[in-house]
Here is the input.
Amino acid sequence: METIADRLERAQQKLEQACQEANRAPNTVQLLAVSKTKPVSDIVLAYEAGQRMFGENYVQEGVEKVQALAAYKDIQWHFIGPLQSNKTKLVAEHFDWMQSIDRLKIAQRLNTQRPFYKAPLNICIQVNIDNEGTKSGVTADQVLPLAAQVSELENLQLRGLMAIPFAAKNNDTLLSSFSKMQQLFNQLKSRYSNIDTLSMGMSGDTAAAIAQGSTMVRLGTAIFGARDYTRVASRG
Ligand SMILES: *Cc1c(COP(=O)(O)O)cnc(C)c1O
Here is the structure.
């Protein structure tokens, strides 16, 4: 059976190949291992294979893992799920990145609640690039106004944008969504320093995202296998 280490190695090869095909320099795409619903022991296996960046979607589950793995000091924890305002404190205290900012109120709370002894919380604004009613994220024309407000908050560091495009069967639709994201990312980069992260691409659409400038792909299934949501004890 394929191990987590095997899958990580294969995923890295796929990233490098996609970079080559897109005429991009090698090692310009980071891999975020999305460990939601997966046990701490799987994260340890990935860590032992060299993986250091992990993404979680649910506050309670994520915080439990951060605490269980507190001894692994060089893990970088990314929160990538929807966040209610009554749970911001847990994210401010335990995570290194928050990729799913879609309103000022959440950013302001994180800014206030970020502990003074920690580095600023790294932020991506989530864009609802296909204007799907069910999906969180701001519309394209709200990106710059929100970025202007977030960049004023001193305990946050704006790093870029995140998107989860509509799971299109049609590759052209997907490419056009990724390409719109790339344009927004370039606009942001031209206005602010420290903008270096375009988080897009998941297990099913990695190469297309890299072709359109993704700097961070978020892989769950490709690394840890299919998720079994019935086994998740706590959500939040
Ligand atoms: C679950 C999730 C992923 C990983 O999805 P896979 O298809 O399993 O790779 C990536 N990004 C976000 C925001 C997610 O919620």
Summary: Residues 34, 36, 57, 80, 164, 202-204, 218-222 surround pyridoxal-5'-phosphate (CB under 6 Å).
